[in-house]
Amino acid sequence: MIYVSRLNGEILAVNSDLIEFIEANPNTVISMTTGRKIVVNENVDEIIVKILEHKKRIFADNDPIIKHNRNEV
Questions:
Q1: Residue 67 CB burial class (10 angstroms; 0-12, 13-18, ≥19)
Q2: Which UniProt keywords apply (predicted)?
């Protein structure tokens, strides 16, 4: 899940695996695979960074080498 904010400031947690595409016209609109569209304050690049950071955390937590190295510290 990633956090984004609606135009009114409301914070939402969005399942990034269900994002189909993101467009800017001029507001940023996230289109979900469910057909739902969410208008948010963040720009396209900010959302992509949030998704990449989220994926890195997921894969790092599942990587046995990274887990092993964390346990040594």
A1: exposed
A2: Cell projection, Cilium, Flagellum
What CA–CA distance (Å, rounded) separates 26 from 30? 12
pLDDT tens, residue by residue, 22-48: 999 899 999 999 999 999 999 999 999
Structure tokens at 11: 């914070």
pTM of the predicted model as reported, rounded to 2 decimal places: 0.79
Of the candidates 45, 50, 61, the one whose C-alpha atom is nearest the C-alpha of residue 11 is 50
What sections of the chain are H helices per DSSP? 44-62, 64-72
Q: What confidence tier does 68 reach under pLDDT thresholds 50, 70, 90?
A: low
Nearest to 44 by CA among 34, 31, 30, 32: 30
Report residue 58 CA to chain centroid gap.
Answer: 12
Contact 27, 42 (CB under 8 A): no
